[in-house]
Automatic annotation (TrEMBL):
The keyword Signal applies. InterPro entries: At5g01610-like, DUF538. Gene3D superfamilies: At5g01610-like. It comes from the Eukaryota. Keywords: Signal. It comes from Corchorus capsularis (Jute). This is DUF538 domain-containing protein. Residues 1-24 form the signal peptide.
Length: 169
């Protein structure tokens, strides 16, 4: 009788207060529990802690937020263009997505020029073993050397083609 009296409250607690275990692949030194809204220099320090190069975001960041579920918003001072290797990229004023270690998923606010079309970048993944950063544009992707993203890129207000850059030097 004592065993059944004890097991009933235990069953009740088990049903109403289930415990969930989760394991994170994020750097444990990151305080990702509280929402962050910090200075722009903090953003460039935060990205490498998530396995991302600081140069995937241009130099005109006004502010950013990072929620406890790792959804983020980056607000730029203005829209801008950046050249990475042979790829022209357009950043809208607001960039959104979800951070995970070495990746950005559900991205919006970034577009890459392919031939004569501007296509939305939907994700970014870093492959540390190959030293490449892969950008996803729908079902397509393009890999660029990670060394292209070591430095924070300078924002340009107009799309300047690589030939124009060389001739102006």
């Amino acid at each position: 009788m004592a065993a059944s009296t004890f097991s009933l409250p235990l069953l009740f607690l088990t049903l109403f207060f289930q415990t969930h275990l989760s394991f994170s692949t994020i750097d444990p030194t990151i305080d990702h529990i509280r929402p962050l809204s910090s200075s722009t220099s903090d953003l460039y320090d935060l990205l490498p802690k998530y396995g991302l190069p600081k140069g995937i975001v241009p130099d005109n960041v006004k502010s950013y937020t990072l929620s406890s579920n790792r959804d983020f918003t980056v607000e730029l001072e203005s829209t801008c263009y950046v050249h990475f290797d042979d790829q022209l990229v357009y950043y809208e004023k607001n960039i959104k997505g979800k951070l995970s270690y070495g990746a950005v998923h559900d991205a919006s606010g970034i577009q890459a020029k392919k031939l004569f079309l501007w296509l939305p970048v939907t994700g970014i993944e870093v492959d540390e073993s190959s030293g490449m950063v892969e950008f996803f544009v729908g079902a397509l992707s393009k890999k660029l050397p990670a060394k292209e993203f070591e430095e924070i890129p300078v924002c340009k207000s107009k799309a300047v083609f690589r030939a124009d850059l060389v001739s102006s030097m």
